[in-house]
Amino acid sequence: MAILMLTPIVMVIWYSLLDGVITNKDSQLVGFDNYAEVLTDPVFYTAVRNTLVFTVSSVVAHFGIGLGFAMLLNTPLLSNRTKAFFRVIYVLPWLFTVAIIAVLWRLLLNPNGVVNYLLGSVGITGGQTEWLADPSTALAAVTFINIWAGYPFFMISLLAGLQGIPRDLYEAARVDGATPFQQFRNVTLPQLRPIIISMALLDFIWTTQQFALIWMTTGGGPINATEMLSTFTYKLAFSRYEFSVASASAVIVLLLSMVLAFFYVRHQKARD
């Protein structure tokens, strides 16, 4: 733990207090100047806004789609063979690596790709939309890709929770005259609440740190339309070679993640 976690964190915090030449013995201690540079950079606030939109939209959609598919896979109206077939279909996006997902959707969203062909054939678009290269659609496009790739995590977790709810609760609710919606609101959701909160907090933390998908689809562009905190920090370090400023940005992201982690740990302790 000390070698793999504590030491790198301490080193990054120390680098964030130095000037730009962190590998030089003559590097100077500049205090919080690097933090001031990050916090006065307009691109940083663009990255914060994009990260919030990307994360909140993804988490809400992951929950909604995951819960819907989990209830479909848990319904007694379908045979076990049918549910097994759809379980395989629904979980497929989770089996692909990020690189495959990025390449797949770049091909699908290409101006000459399948998505444009289908939308153009029904008259929804002109058929040549630059989904990932247009600043007005790029953020929505990468958010959609992330939703498609991440909903199985919620689906599998919620399906396990649904299968663990005692059937006696539903039978008692039906005896009391509860409608299916009332059973869902008063039986299903309260029983799933601990799982929902845990999954939402974890998904929020993971999504705010999403880097590979953004980098391999848009690279944070076009014109910072999909710039995230992760890509912003990466560019500071490996495009502008301002490692100390990038370290300051990383520390800020770490502090934000620690706030989310605090609420997750607090919820887990309350649940235990």
UniProtKB/TrEMBL annotation:
Q: Where in the cell is it found?
A: Cell membrane
What CDD domains does this protein map onto?
A: TM_PBP2
Question: Which GO biological process annotations does it have?
Answer: transmembrane transport
Q: Does the keyword Nucleus apply?
A: no
The main place the protein resides is membrane
Record's Gene Ontology CC terms? plasma membrane
Entries under InterPro entries matching the protein: MetI-like, MetI-like_sf
Q: Which organism is it from?
A: Cellulomonas triticagri
- Please give the PROSITE patterns that the UniProt record associates with this protein: ABC_TM1 (PS50928)
The protein here is known as Sugar ABC transporter permease
Which UniProt keywords are listed? Cell membrane, Membrane, Transmembrane, Transmembrane helix, Transport
Report the residue ranges that make up the ABC transmembrane type-1 domain in this protein. 48-264
By sequence similarity, the record places it as follows: Belongs to the binding-protein-dependent transport system permease family.
Which spans are transmembrane here? 52-73, 85-108, 138-160, 243-265
Q: How does it sit in the membrane?
A: Multi-pass membrane protein
